[in-house]
Amino acid sequence: MIQVYPASSRFEYDKGWLKGGHSFSFAEYYDPENVKFGPMRVCNDDVIAPGKGFGAHPHSDMEIVSIILSGRLRHEDSLGNVAVTGFGGVQRMSAGTGVIHTEHNPSEHEDVHILQLWFEPAERGKAPSYTTGEFDTAALDGALVAIASGQGLEGVTDMGQDMTIYLSRMEEGQKIGFKQAAGRRVFLFVIEGELNVSGAGDTVSLGRRDTARITEAPELSLIGNSPVFYMLVDLP
Predict the structure, then answer these.
(1) 138 CB-contact burial (10 Å; exposed 0-12 / middle 13-18 / buried 19+)
(2) Which of 6, 84, 95, 158 is the S-S candidate for 59 at Cβ 3.0 to 4.6 Å?
(3) Mean of the pLDDT values across residues 108-130?
(4) Of residues 142, 141, 172, 147, the one with CA closest to residue 159
(5) What is the pLDDT of residues 70-109, one digit of tens each?
(6) What is this structure's pTM?
(7) What residues form DSSP beta bridges with 61?
(8) DSSP labels for the chain?
(9) Strands across the sheet with 211-215, in order?
C-alpha cells in the first residue's frame, strides 16, 4: 500500500529565524494519527536564518540524522564534539542515555536548509555518540546512494537502527528499481521535482515536498516525471 501525504498536509511554521514543515507530530503540532511510521518519529524540513539556531537542549534514546541540503550547519554537544557540515555531509547523533547539543547556522549571509530525521533506536539506554559522514554528490545522479545506515554498509555513516537512508537524483523519464525484504516499510520524501512511484499494484505521483509511506510493497519502480531529487528511507 502506498499512502500519499501531500505537501499541503504538513504542519507549516514561520518563526522568522526558522521556517519549514513537520511531516510528523512535533513541538506545538500534535496529531494522534500522525505520531510515527515504524521507528521513524520525525521528518522536519528546516530553513534556519543566518546567525540563528537552536540553543542547548537535551535528547535521549533517539537516532537523530541531519542532512544538509544547502548552506552549512554547526553542531556542538556535551560529548565535546564540534562539526560544521554542508551539502554532501551528514550528521548523526545517537542520543542514548542523554546528550545536550546546539545547532545553528554559522553564516552571516546564507540560510542553511536541512532535513532532520529522528528514529527510535533498536536498543535503548546505550552510551551516546556522534559522528559525521560524507557522500559523493555526483553519485546521486541516476542511483540510490546510502548516506546513513544501521545495516553494516561499508563506508556509510552508521546508525543504531536496522534501516538505511538513501538520496537520489533522476532526470525526466529515468527509472530506478528498489527491492527490500518482505514486511519492511519505505518512507519517500520529494525534495525537488516530481516522482512516479509504483508497487504492489499501486501507482502514485509525488510532487515537491510530498511524502509517501509504503507498506507491503517490497519491489518499487521509481520514475522521474521531471528532474527530481528525493530521499528514500528503508525501515523495519
Answers:
(1) exposed
(2) 95
(3) 98
(4) 147
(5) 999 999 999 999 999 999 999 999 999 999 999 999 999 9
(6) 0.97
(7) none
(8) -EEEE-GGGSEEEE-SSEEEEESS-BTTB--TTSS-BTTEEEEEEEEE-TT-EEEEEEE-S-EEEEEEEES-EEEEETTS-EEEE-TTEEEEEE-TT-EEEEEE---SS--EEEEEEEE--SSSSPPPEEEEEE--GGGGBTS-EEEEESS--TTSEE-SSS-EEEEEEE-TT-EEEEE--TT-EEEEEEEES-EEEEETTEEEEE-TT-EEEEES--EEEEEESSSEEEEEEEE-
(9) 2-5, 211-215, 185-192, 228-235, 164-170, 145-149, 157-158
